[in-house]
Amino acid sequence: MDNGGLILLIFLAFLFAWGLNRVRKAFRLGPMAYTGVVITFVIVMLAVYTQTLR
Q: Where are the transmembrane segments (predicted)?
């Protein structure tokens, strides 16, 4: 995977964070739920990234 894929991954992460912030305000999620969603997203993105390296 080249640097373009990494840039795309970072862009998707920012887009996800922006969307999650809007959803969190709409559903009034607590900090623990917010942290759980972010950690899950990071793990999934790392798994996808490592799969594309093979």
A: 32-50
